[in-house]
Amino acid sequence: MRSGRAARAFVGVCLTALGGGGCALEVLPPLGLPCATDDDCPADYRCLGGELCAPAGDVDAGPSDAGPDDGGTPDGGSPDGGAPPEPGRVLPDYLVVTLGRSLTVPLRMDGDATAITVTALRGVATVDGVTLSYTAPITPDRDTIAVTFTGGATELIVDVVDPASFDQVWTGGGGATFADPANWQGGAPTASVLIPAGTPAALVDADLNLEELVIETGVRVDAEDATLLATIAARVGGTFSPRSLVYVGGEVAGHFDDLTIGANAALDAPTLVTDDLVVAGPTACTFDAAGETLEVLGDLTTTDYGRLRMADPDARVVVRGDAAFRGGTTNDGSLAAGVLELHGNFTQAQNIYVGPTQFVASGNHRVRLIGGSQQSIAFENPTSSVFADLEVGGAGAQLATAVVVLGELEVRAGTRLTARSGPLEVRGEVATQPGAVLEAQRLLVSHPMAFADPAGFEIDELIVDDGTETLPPELPYLDVEVHGPVEADGAPIIGGTLTVTEANGALSVREAHVTVSGDFGTDNRGVLVMDDGQGVFEVLGLATFAGGASDALSAGTLVLHAGLREQYNMYVGGDMLVATNLHVTRFEGGPQSVSFDDPGTGNYTSSLRHVEVATGADVTFETDVFITGDLTVSGALHIAGTHIVTVSGATVVNGAIDGGTLVPNGGCSGTGTGCP
Hints:
This protein is mainly beta and 676 residues long. It contains one helix and 62 strands. The chain has a 37-stranded mixed beta sheet that branches. A hairpin with a 2-residue loop joins strand 6 and strand 7.
């Protein structure tokens, strides 16, 4: 049980408007000192709202307890229970009132609580400070109370019920025992039952089976580990007490402690579970959040054949504890919309009777991680169960397994997302806010990346696929793999290796200057595209062409520092490296070697276009080489053994060429040595 957690859920209401600083949700500390400025407060304190001294970092004048606040405004801890709900959101609330009854309840809200107004659709609603007074109409129906205040607007749902419409109505005339017929108008509780306000508390001490359970606001029902089964509806305006276990089907609304959904059910109004929620059915069992808000202060678990459904864009499920999905399948669009807000850990585990699809999010469904301490995310089946959109905030999260995000990934300001236990694949856009860090051993992306702070890009190996479009030039890349059509932009530096691979792999270097600090290679059917004269592709390591047929090197400059190799690909042929038109290959530094598995100028062979051996370069051609354009040597060029270098254009030697055979079909000149 977590009754302590429940007790902290609503520790107070907005009592004092604090300028622009928000609304106090906790009783002011007795040791607080009045103040006008920070100078009036002790060291390490500040003047909150010009009224009261509070510890530095405290934002609600409550004691700095560094503990969970269950959704209230954080009060000084670091972390302090997680981010509060969005400004202006009323915490889940729901009222049940009998005909014509008046009741008074505090409004539960976040944000600045000044200028509150309320209106009811059918009944009469007024507000004094933050206290709501409501008088129900004299006919049964659902009523809506609109609440408008500085910072937002929301709605409260009221069920106005007629006691005459229930089969049994609680009187408590015979004592407290729930099952005693003497305590009910209409006999023993078996069908549709109502517990109205103003009656003695009911005690459930035996398992019971009802059709419908309705508890009026202000009433508390105590259960002693009994099972209460409601097959049509459970609508609780009061509270179903600690240690209760309620198996529910049909309509669900109100305030529960432990709640177990054991049959198909749907939220009918905003609902609060102050401890744990379990969705578990022996057969297919769906709990539909519909378009409502569900807040679980404990853990959420799906098991057996139970599953959660979120298909309405207004659906919002908030889990303050852990969320474990090991129940029914959701691969039918069950998780297609709404927001699942998690403050604890997340796990998906395969059910041997169902398969590996316990959490298949799709569409616009969003998981929001905003825990007060680092959250752990684990998928037993990370390719069968997936996120749609994922938002990471709070104290950050660690992915304990591989994770697939079908939609967008956003890391909030000041938050770190760590993925070092398997690849992180994001098929939508990747974005980080200022101060955010995305750390991953292997990141697969399929859409543009937007890192507000380049230092927040801590990726060992980046794999870019179809739709990535460009490589942002400012990111500190290590190893990179290109699996789709990608264009380099600006002057990106690859700190490790760069590989262009897969059937659609194509890296285009047009107006960019790409530097690869390690080795570069093409394989499978991947190609390097250079078709613009301003493009520069510089490789400090070995450059290997073993991918798709590469006749896409028609312009720009390939700068090599540690050698070049063309390698035969049995699935493509030997034309891995065919440079044409204005393309230039420049060798700088060395010593470095060049080799071709398939040298030539015909079909299935590879050749260079214009070649430059720069001053200070030392290059050895280890095989025959065909140059279809010009050769300019300012450094040293060695032709190994009896190999032949054939040059179709002009040869200019201002350095030295030795060994093997040079065939300068376009003539040879210069001040150096080596012309025949």
